[in-house]
Design a protein that fits this description.
Blueprint (H helix, E strand, L loop, with lengths): L6 E5 L5 H7 L3 H6 L10 H15 L3 E7 L4 E11 L4 E8 L8 H15 L5 E7 L3 H9 L3 E12 L2 E10 L5
Parallel strand pairs: 4-5
Antiparallel strand pairs: 1-2, 2-3, 3-4, 5-7, 6-7
Length: about 170
């Protein structure tokens, strides 16, 4: 197994449409994210366009994550940015072929660095399905603290989920 630690974030745009389309149909992605299941036919294109528009009005940001070789290994997103409050939500999705290689932790570390330096956030949050312990371990490894569990917070496929609310401040170690 190759461990991918050298990653870079590129602004999400149409160049990554095929990669994003593959991600949004991945069963694990559909299971543990708020992406609709099944995703509408043009969901990947509309999702990318939403991040491009959000970049323009500074309400969200999306990044394609590339390994040092230039291979697409996932997404890093800030689906909600509240500049006035200095708070944003972060999220990450790892491509199936890159899982188990340290990519999720690398993405979250880079996103967190971006949040506190470039976006000037005072608080970053993660919302993680309680049935996704792998993602909770990534949050812990990256210095996030579990604040609590939001019960029955999201409805998907007729099932309500509980999600952990994780946070990190720029002053946290």
């Amino acid at each position: 197994m190759t461990v991918v630690q050298d990653i870079r974030l590129e602004p999400l745009d149409g160049r990554w449409l095929a990669d994003v389309a593959a991600l949004v149909t991945d069963p694990l992605v559909l299971r543990y994210t708020r992406i609709p299941d099944p995703p509408p036919a043009d969901f990947a294109r509309e999702w990318i366009d939403g991040y491009i528009a959000g970049r323009q009005d500074r309400t969200r940001e999306g990044f394609a994550v590339l390994a040092g070789s230039g291979r697409f290994v996932g997404l890093g997103v800030a689906p909600e940015i509240d500049r006035q409050a200095g708070e944003l939500e972060l999220g990450y999705i790892v491509a199936a072929e890159a899982r188990g290689q340290g990519v999720a932790s690398s993405i979250l570390r880079r996103l967190t660095q971006w949040a506190f330096s470039d976006a000037r956030a005072e608080r970053a949050i993660l919302i993680i399905d309680v049935e996704n312990p792998a993602s909770a371990r990534v949050a812990e490894r990256c210095g996030y603290r579990l604040e609590g569990v939001m019960r029955s917070v999201h409805l998907k496929q007729g099932r309500r989920i509980d999600a952990g609310l994780w946070s990190r401040l720029p002053t946290d170690p």
